[in-house]
Write a structure and sequence with these properties.
16% helix; six-stranded antiparallel sheet; Agglutinin, subunit A; 4 domains; flat; 9 helices; seven-stranded mixed sheet; single chain; 640 residues
Length: 640
Amino acid sequence: MMAAGRPLSGDRKLVSRGGKFALGFFKPAGISEEGAVDRWYVGIWYHKIPVRTPVWVANRDRPVSDPAASRLTIAPDGNLVMLDPSGSSAWSTNASARSFANVVVAVLLDTGNLVLAPSSNASDVLWQSFDHVGDTWLPGAKVRRDKVTGLFHGMTSWKSYGDPALGAYTLQLDPTGAPRYMLLRKRNGTLAYYTGIGDWNGLTFPGDAGYSFSFVDNDRDSYFAYGFVDNSIMYRFVMDVFGQVKGLVWVEDTQAWNQVFAVPMRQCDVPQRCGAFGVCTEGAPTVCRCLEGFSPRDVAGWSLGDYSGGCVRNTELQCGDSADRLKEKDSFFLMYYHVSRRLPDNGDRGVAAGASSSGDCEQACRVDCACSAYAYKRNCILWQNDLLNLEDTYFKREADVGDLYIRLATSSEPPVPGVRNYKRRTDEITVGAFAIVCLVVVTSVIIVGTTMSRRRAKKVQCLEGCVASFTYRELKSFTNKFSDKLGGGAFGSVFRGQLPDRTTTIAVKKLEGLRQGEKQFRAEVSTLGTIHHVNLIRLLGFCSGSGDRNKLLVYEYMSNGSLDRHLFGATPHALSWRTRYQVAVGVAKGLCYLHDKCRDCIIHCDVKPENVLLDVAFEPKIADFGLAKLMGRPRFQRAC
């Protein structure tokens, strides 16, 4: 509790009774630079978690430079005010509290709500932070419309991750009074880009925690609120700096915030996400980037995640007054293959009549001083001035718009090599590409020829996937007449052997009772030879002589044998729990690869410790994973 004469200053803080939240001075991470003046704010954050997470900020647009010389205090008129080092007010509750000037207190509740009320009657709330949410909406707080003042109190994003100042995006109630919310972009005018009604019902929480949403409409205000049955759950909605509303829950096991909700679902669906001439890439670590030939307008803001300033040309187009202004030598067009055009209909996009080809479309753009880009497919589309809402879409192409050509000054720096292509140099690049392809083909032929010659010299043939073909006589020699038996199973016995290089130890399995023809056997082995995974035994070669007795498979040798020997052998080796976990995870990964990642699904059908082999580092490798396929079980293949 904070009363008159007991201000907060410096590193002092007010902690809620249960210790869940704290109120005090803080500095967002990443906003201070070398030699820059510090910016400090008064805010509320979670007190018990290691990640400093502000949920409410008082002086969002008026930071102070010295928290030790600043104060958060109860003013003589009963309002809660923040005074900067000069004594000027940087923020105030502006509540009608004059009649309670001597007995007003500020209390931080365990819900995260900061309440201003008379000390004699805490329920007589004069002001509360839950009526004035910032970028974060906590359980119990309100996204509301004050019917007395007509003001909307909703979530407004931070300007950037390091700057709590009012950003460009807001969530508020629908001005028509309908029980729904809207997402607005308030920069250079107001643009509504999302409307929600029942979206809240799609939320999920650990343990199926009970929660509820409600819409209240009375004489004083109308608002949305939500809550949980279990108050220990730490959950918050955040109006992200990029324009998405995200639902985040704290997971104690991982000590991190886990996202369980987002609208819009796609980041790039937020309008003007990356500003002018900025390109949005869904799912990329860096969501926004500038077009080649452009740079961020605000480099410092860009580094902190504030992309609203967009990008500017590295070299401005030169536009003279003569009739032949912007001649071909003064500018060129940079072609983009995978940029989606979703520009708003704001007058900057139009169709050039009479342009019946891509060349006509280019010329129509060239003679227009304000034209910054064009596209041609069935029509010639021209863009003037800034380009907005560009998006990299490598797997999604618009059917009605051709490739986009960006206009750049000839003297501008060239783009990153290999990233994009210039239309003016299509022929040169085509010739260069053809030459490179020819070089690669010739080189490949030489390499393949040399390799095949060496293999023929060693009398080793190779199938697809580089699985060697051995003769029965060779394998008999490699295994010293099959004298060193490692084990056996339902499909045959396994023998230790060594290749002629004297450094590679192999395991040779003699298959018994396998009724397959020569062609089928080779096809199956070729398929298995292309399967490569760190947790699957590697097939090195095979022998397919006449008769079933002469069908053999050659595998890599596993020095630590099978898992069953370590678990159930006469003198079992005590595997550590770390090793057991490593084995379990490795086996799961190998099976997952067989089921879902192979070109043809393979069902093992015989997973047991005898078929799990361990290498020198006790890394597990599944063996006999191809027997189901080799035995010819088409119903399993169809089931996949």
